[in-house]
Amino acid sequence: MEPSSFDPTHAVVFDLNRGQVSLEGAGQQLLFPADLMAVVCGQLEAGVVRQLGVSLGRQAGARLRARVESSTASLEVMVEQLAGELSLGGFGALAIERWGRALVARIDGYPLAGHGQELMGGYIEGALYVAVEREVTALPLERTAHSLRLLLCNRSASARVKGWLLAGGSWGDALASLHQAPRNDVGSHV
């Protein structure tokens, strides 16, 4: 396995004299318990939680873009860099799964999986929009107590998969059905 190209050195700075924590490229940060964020996510409307995630993701995307030339970077490098950003925020470990042409983001160790799927969906969308200048929908497919899967696709494919899921279909069957769709519906690259 190749060594990671993500370098967290000096990414988080604790200034104890001022009582501040900062994240490189994002300024001052707050540290608070994940279960508190889960309660907040559970109390707010889904759209508000998603917008919060988009804001956090855009900051991460800007840091990623400053480190990597997105037009020439491989999918693996982009995933590695985004995974590093998620890890710095305490959001868990990111992996990308290929399901045929479909890309699924899997976050293991996600501390808000039960309540924060909209937060992570917005985070991924915001990060990819800034980092690779591409609008991607991150549709929640599956959540457990400590993991989350999100389909990365366009709005049209997202609407179709959401319809299949609401009709009681499994997300695996929904992804299989996407393969009969036109090629530009599925996020075949990030």
Low-confidence parts lasting 5 or more residues at pLDDT below 50? 185-190
Distance between the termini: 22 Å
How many separate domains make up the residues? Answer: 1
The string of secondary-structure elements, in order, is: EEEHHHEEHEEHH
Query: What spatial order of strands do you see in the largest sheet?
Result: 4-5-7-6
Description:
With 190 residues, the protein is α+β, with helices and mostly antiparallel strands. The chain has one domain (12-185): Muramoyl-pentapeptide Carboxypeptidase, domain 2. It has six helices and seven strands; from the N terminus they run βββαααββαββαα. It has helices at 34-43, 46-67, 75-88, 117-132, 155-166, 171-178; strands at residues 12-15, 20-23, 27-29, 93-99, 102-108, 137-143, 147-153. The strands form two sheets. The chain has a four-stranded antiparallel β-sheet with strand order 4-5-7-6, sandwiched between helices. A hairpin with a 2-residue loop joins β4 (93-99) and β5 (102-108). α2 crosses α3. The longest helix has 22 residues, at 46-67.
Secondary-structure blueprint of this entry?
Elements: E1 12-15, E2 20-23, E3 27-29, H1 34-43, H2 46-67, H3 75-88, E4 93-99, E5 102-108, H4 117-132, E6 137-143, E7 147-153, H5 155-166, H6 171-178
Antiparallel strand pairs: 1-2, 2-3, 4-5, 5-7, 6-7
